[in-house]
Design a protein that fits this description.
Blueprint (H helix, E strand, L loop, with lengths): L9 E6 L3 H4 L14 H14 L2 E7 L34 E2 L10 E6 L10 H8 L3 E7 L1 H13 L4 E10 L3 H13 L3 E3 L1 H5 L2
Parallel strand pairs: 1-2, 1-5, 2-4, 3-4, 5-6, 6-7
């Protein structure tokens, strides 16, 4: 259990928990990812009950996206696979646009690259949210989660990675990222620790 002031504003940061990644039928399935869905659901429901906002990144690719030269086609905007499962989706979430209402319980940041911070709207959103603590989870640990977690650390906020609510493709790369994350001040936590607060 990490120590922090309960009055510190906390935002949950949910990275790319989409059907194409989480389940074997998905277009770019992350092996083992279905095993974290129960933890993802616990985190989502806890955030909802405690009125913690959730910022969710999602891939939203064009059919001919340049990324598909490196990865097989996935999360094409408007397809079933691009959608979020019930485990990580609130009924009244909104997609981030230029004039977003930052009071929405879930704000979805649609991205076309691995790094959510490549979306010029993300930093202004985080500034407006004024969070001092981020709880980070999702897929893939050493790729998109890494970009998100390290980018969030640059804001000066406390950043906690939920180790049983992430899934990697390469365990060695994941360990390298976690070492880098901790060296920069990141904190490791678990779903049980988060939801027992």
């Amino acid at each position: 259990m990490t120590s922090h002031n309960r009055s510190v504003k906390t935002v949950f940061f949910d990275v790319d928990t989409q059907l194409d990644f989480l389940y074997p039928a998905g277009a770019l399935y992350v092996p083992g990812a279905e095993g974290i869905v129960a933890a993802l659901a616990r985190l989502t429901r806890f955030a909802e009950i405690k009125h913690f906002q959730i910022v969710s990144t999602t891939d939203a690719h064009a059919e001919d996206d340049l990324e598909f030269k490196h990865w097989k086609p996935h999360c094409v905007a408007g397809t079933v696979g691009q959608q979020k499962p019930a485990a990580t989706k609130l009924a009244n979430g909104v997609v981030l646009n230029e004039a977003i209402d930052v009071s929405a319980p879930q704000i979805i940041v649609e991205k076309q690259t691995l790094d959510a911070f490549s979306d010029p709207k993300l930093r202004p959103l985080l500034t407006a949210l004024e969070a001092k603590r981020y709880i980070v989870y999702g897929v893939v640990t050493e790729i998109c989660v890494r970009f998100a977690a390290l980018g969030l650390l640059e804001t000066g906020a406390q950043v906690e990675l939920v180790t049983d609510a992430v899934q990697s493709l390469n365990a060695l790369d994941e360990r390298g990222f976690i070492s880098q994350f901790q060296a920069r001040g990141g904190i490791l936590t678990t779903t049980s620790a988060v939801v027992s607060e």
